[in-house]
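Milestone M4 deliverable, item 7.
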Amino acid sequence: MTAMNPTLSETTEPPRLRRLLGRARAVLFDFDGPVCDLFAGRSTQPVALEIKAMARKKWNSLDPAVEACDDSHGILHFLRDMLDRRGDAVLDPTALSAANDIVTRYEYEAARSAVPAPGIQLLLDTLLGQGKRLAVVTNNAEGPVRKFLELHGMSRKFEAVCGRDPREPRCMKPDPSSVRRALECLGRMSPDAAVMVGDQLTDLQAAVSAEVGFLGYSTDHERGRLLHREGAQGVVASHAQLIAACAPAPVSRLRP
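Output delivered:
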């Protein structure tokens, strides 16, 4: 008989979640995924295509890595690398800021129609009720994130939104810069007093680099297994599991 693969809930021990959340004074949330599905599963290829068309006009030709990239955030990295190699004297540096503006415009459009992740409102209220401090740590631009939070009554729940630096795409996760900025915004909080909730390997890598605990959140079984395998201290498939982990541990009763 073939052994069945464990589910995400089976790979995460509830007491471990309870310990992680119990000792955390702050919870840092990645935005796209744990808070909402920003592009609702749609590819960001149209964003990359518009950026490449703009960059060709300014730079004439693009490196193969830029041409091959169909990811809205990844292409910012490749444009930055191309500019560094050739220099401002050869390439118009305004192309990089123009590319960031294009990505941000699409993010604003998506934020207007995106819906909150199931259970996120109750999870935030539960964490706040336990005195936790909350922040968003994201590769999205700060403006669209704040717009979404405002539309859904979440603005006051987060003390900080640490988004993409428009001047330096290399500070996006997996670089830990935004995680460290969030800790600074929370009063120079010690990394061991915080835990991050994210759905990507880059989130995990940023948290590890910043020495912050990490909880994986993914409805995709394989991605959840990847996060678990790569070192996530817990992996959940729904916010209901985190809400349950916030409840006091059940007291075992001895039989008379």
